[in-house]
Amino acid sequence: MVTKLTKSEAEQLKAAGIIVDNSLSTPEIITEIAKKGYDETELQAGKSKITTAQQALSDQTKKEGIAQDATKAEAAAKTDAHSAYQDLAQILRGKYPPNSPELVKVGLVGSEPNTTADLIKGGYTLFDNAASDAEIAAYILIKGYTPEFIQSERAKIAAYEQANKDQVKAIGAASDSTKAKVTAFKDMNDWLSEYKASAKVALRKKPALLEQLGIKIRKHRPVKKNNNTPPAQ
Predict the structure, then answer these.
(1) What domain count does the chain have?
(2) Is residue 221 pLDDT above 70, yes or no?
């Protein structure tokens, strides 16, 4: 799954690219802006900041998608694990009374597991202990719980545990990539802000060159004369 670029990020990268690329490709701009400390080496450094921001955004977009996919996979695995747990629990509760030694052994006492950790722990206890107890294993065999089927149902608990780990890892990676993107864009925009301020001074008398950089200069409106001045006495 691919997350679309936000309009502001796309616009920032586009504007930054225009400023730096057009500066580098226009000798007259290079000559004038070098007087303000921005020689070709410094412009290349600015271009590098733009590349870093582009890469950071691409990485963040990719990892956000991975995190979303991992969250969907975790939800599906949870549904499978919960169903497997409930199916066997219901069969055993139909056979043995509450708080019986058999139900205690397989962990079917107290409230239902309602957290990830409880479901995983309870699932392993249920399937492992049901399979290892001769009486319980013989009973659930009649219900279709062969040793192979018990392992396949237990595997759903293991799959949920792994899916949860994958989700936590993916969300953490997405969070880190978002922080890296924010830092990269700030670094790029800070450089651009300083460069544009210098460019406006260096190219003040050459507005056409500023337009090539996408920098607009506000035109000062002439001051209107006050026509209500009373006539001289």
Answers:
(1) 1
(2) no
Domain that holds residue 95: 8-212
Nearest residue to 173 via CA among 64, 68, 73, 74: 64
Task: Calculate the CA dihedral of residues 194, 195, 201, 206 and round it to 10 degrees.
Answer: -160
Q: Is residue 72 part of a domain?
A: yes
Q: What is the pLDDT of residue 2?
A: 47
Does some domain include residue 142? yes
Percent of the chain with pLDDT over 70: 90
Tell me whether residue 229 is in a domain. no
pLDDT at 168: 98
Looking from the CA of 79 toward its CB, the CA atoms found within 13 Å total 5
